[in-house]
Amino acid sequence: MMDTREFQTIRVKVEDALGRLTLNRPERLNAVGATMLQELAEAARWFDSHRELRVVIVSGEGRAFCAGADLKDSPLAAPVDSSWLYRREVGQYGLRAADALEQMRAVTIAQVHGFAVGGGVVLMAVCDLRVAADDAVFFIPEIDLGIPLAWGGIPRLVREIGPALTKELVMTCRRFTPAEAKSIGFLNRVVPAARLESEVEQLARELIAKPSVPVVITKEHVNSVVRAMGAGMTPFADGDVLLGASGNEESAAAARAYREKAFGKRS
Q1: Is 86 helix (H, G, I), strand (E, B) or coil?
Q2: Burial class of residue 255 in the structure, from the number of CB atoms within 10 Å of its CB (0-12 exposed, 13-18 middle, 19+ buried)
Q3: d(CA 228, CA 90)
Q4: Pairwise CA distance, residues 135 & 114, whole Å
Q5: Whose C-alpha in 31, 58, 197, 210 is 20 to 30 A from the C-alpha of 84?
């Protein structure tokens, strides 16, 4: 049986034991704005309402997996005359969406092609398994934008690749390849771009064919161990940190310079 639900910025579908979540803003390279963050959190709850669902494939429409936070529709773009409480609420959208996706009952597989930038890397990190095309490109430009990496990105990256590499990749904002991402344990598989969809589909079907109870228990067991190991590594109030950075003139100047370089002065 197939079920779908309408959203503005994403597509979702469940067909028997397999679900699909597709970021659907190809004209913006699937950049994540405030609306998408809210819809991702709602989609996670919608997927959990399907009791027979076993695996969800997370992908991006068009030329990229996800170009990160949408600079034109960022929670930081909340009107300056709005209340601090409102801006704080909006600032937490990213963390809430990431937490909701990570805590879904089904096993999630990130199917990554093209660019995965900043928040796109965080969306990869919340998925249980990650498969990337061999020509994908990763980088985390937040510091060049004058802001810290949010959405719980720091503790998640420390968990996945360790503190030293997290510091390097976040502080330098340099690009890294799928081969490097796999060598540091961030990716499960790197496959030729032409075979990405079929390889992920095969992996999903393989997981669906396994006994459901031990698969669910294994996911929960691993996540519980990780939480215990990471006690004290909290992303608490990272939206507040974002708001604080946005008021710093050096950070604001960095953001302006990045936008002009990336999009031209008209943006």
Answers
A1: helix
A2: buried
A3: 29
A4: 7
A5: 31
For the chain, give the number of residues: 267
Instruction: State whether residue 146 is helix, strand or coil.
Output: coil
Q: How far apart are CA 42 and CA 258, in angstroms?
A: 32
Dist CA 130 CA 7 (whole Å):
24
105 φψ region: left (φ > 0), alpha (ψ -120 to 50), beta (else): alpha
Per-residue pLDDT of the chain (267 residues; tens, 9 = 90+): 899 999 999 999 999 999 999 999 999 999 999 999 999 999 999 999 999 999 999 999 999 999 999 977 765 666 666 776 777 788 889 999 999 999 999 999 999 999 999 999 999 999 999 999 999 999 999 999 999 999 999 999 999 999 999 999 999 999 999 999 999 999 999 999 999 999 999 999 999 999 999 999 999 999 999 888 876 666 656 767 777 676 678 888 887 888 788 656 544
Count Cβ atoms below 10 Å from residue 220 Cβ, excluding itself.
11
Separation of CA 241 from chain center: 19
**Distance (Å, whole) CA 261 – CA 267:** 10
Distances (CA, A) of 219 to 80, 154, 248, 265: 42, 21, 41, 47
Q: How many CB atoms lie within 10 A of CB 183?
A: 12
Q: What is the DSSP letter of 57?
A: E
* Per-residue CA distances from 135 to 138, 164, 193 (Å): 10, 25, 7
In whole angstroms, give the CA distance from residue 217 to residue 189.
23
Distances from the Cα of 36 to the Cαs of 51, 58, 204, 212, 249, in angstroms? 24, 14, 25, 30, 28
| β-bridge mates for residue 116, sequence order | 66, 138
